[in-house]
Amino acid sequence: MLNIKLFPTDVPQRPMGYYAHIILLRETDSYSLFQTDGELNTAQVHAGCANAEIISRITMFKRKQTTPERLAGRELLRHYGFTSAEASDKDAKNKRTDERGVAVDGTGVPICDYNVDFCKQCPDCISYGFAIGDAGSEKSKVYSDTAYSLSRFDDSHEAFTLNAPYESGTMSRQGELTNRINEQDHVRPQTLFPSVITVRDLPAALFRYVLMNVLRTRRYGAQTTRTGTMTNHLIGIVLADGEIFSNLHFTQRLYDALKAGNHINDIEPIPVEVALTSARALVSELLAEEPVTPTQTLLGDDLLAFLNTLGGQMRDETTMRTLLQEAAEASRTYHARYVQKKGKK
Q1: Are 197 and 246 in contact (CB under 8 A)?
Q2: Which of 232, 279, 282, 305 lies 20 to 30 angstroms, CA to CA, from 113?
Q3: CA torsion, ordered 218, 237, 119, 106, to nearest 10 deg
Q4: Dihedral of alpha carbons 326, 329, 331, 333, sign
Q5: Contact present, 278 and 230 (Cβ < 8 Å)
Q6: What is residue 343's predicted lDDT score, i.e. its pLDDT?
Q7: Are 199 and 140 in contact (CB under 8 A)?
Q8: Which of 191, 239, 223, 189 is nearest to 23 (CA)?
């Protein structure tokens, strides 16, 4: 099980070197869109560390990863009544606030309006940070870098012609053909994105909140109501006194391992189970090369036991409410100490 004694008891005001890493293999389960300005994001990088060939990989930028996970957590907080479903009216003269100066609805539940008026005291605000111009900001304690597709761009994408037919089911009306036809590149199903999420200086309750968001999030990228489903395969959890390997280094080393085993070709997708097995074996090797001190590592059977326990807690409404309550209390404590404006004596 995860040793909560290795986490800080409260969120510290200054960095204290408590790092918890969530190591993932993200797998697309449908055709996904990770794009900017209408095109898939790509990067020219070396195929591996041992393989110096330059290839093009699809990139999944940080916000393409953290935003869906953050919104999933915010949805959960509203569902269990820790934040209000009301929109903020921050310019209202009769704005309701509690004794801490936090905007609340008619029942006293804090209002946290994403990218409009953050409440600055819920688990989402304290974990992922916020910026409200002159009203203050909080740096994110969740670090996530660009993720790179394990396979090359040519093997990971497919172009589709999209149309928007009339209600009759045809593309013409009164003899005129619509111009609502477009072509768009999509990421193919079973494309893998090795990823490391680093959580810094959060107590166990808030780390668990971030982890639950990762495990619960199912849709990423654009048009998430129609496509973009993804499975986050958890490979390991590593507690240490510093940051570990990057997403790109993880991807390149995993590519080398799979290439050496003849598991990468230009026709078929990389076998997911083979990639997972190789990634699990690779993590220990990569950690041994890092100049940090791991305090606990959950891999293999230990990780499975932890996930089974956590999964049981997440499926029970009463226990889930307790987990969120612990996260909310840790956030409010930090808010009272370091964020809330103190009145003049």
Answers
A1: no
A2: 232
A3: 60
A4: negative
A5: no
A6: 44
A7: no
A8: 239
Q: Is 134 helix (H, G, I), strand (E, B) or coil?
A: helix
Strands (E), 77-191: 130-131, 137-138, 142-144, 147-148, 157-163, 172-173, 176-177, 181-187
d(C-alpha 274, C-alpha 338), whole Å: 47
Domain ranges within the chain, ordered by starting residue: 4-61+143-156+188-331
3-state DSSP assignment of residue 243: coil
**Residue 132: per-residue pLDDT:** 75
pLDDT along the chain (345 residues), means of 10: 93 96 96 79 94 94 94 97 88 76 88 91 96 80 96 80 56 57 76 97 98 96 79 97 97 96 84 95 96 95 96 96 97 93 49
**Closest-CA residue to 131 (of 144, 145, 120):** 120
| pLDDT at res. 136 | 74
CA distance 28 to 275: 14
What's this model's pTM, rounded to 2 decimal places?
0.91
Sole residue written with tokens 């090797």: 285
Distances (CA, A) of 27 to 2, 66, 100, 219, 334: 25, 16, 43, 11, 35
Torsion over CA: 179, 180, 184, 186 (sign) = negative
Euclidean distance between CA atoms 285 and 220, whole angstroms:
30
Collapsing DSSP to helix, strand or coil, 115 comes out as coil
* Contact call for residues 22 and 194 (beta carbons, < 8 A): no
As a whole number of angstroms, the distance between CA 338 and CA 125 comes to 13
- Cα separations in angstroms, 213 against 71, 273, 305: 9, 23, 19
Token pair 């654009």 is found at 222
- What pLDDT score was predicted for residue 281? 95
Contact between 32 and 232 (Cβ < 8 Å): no
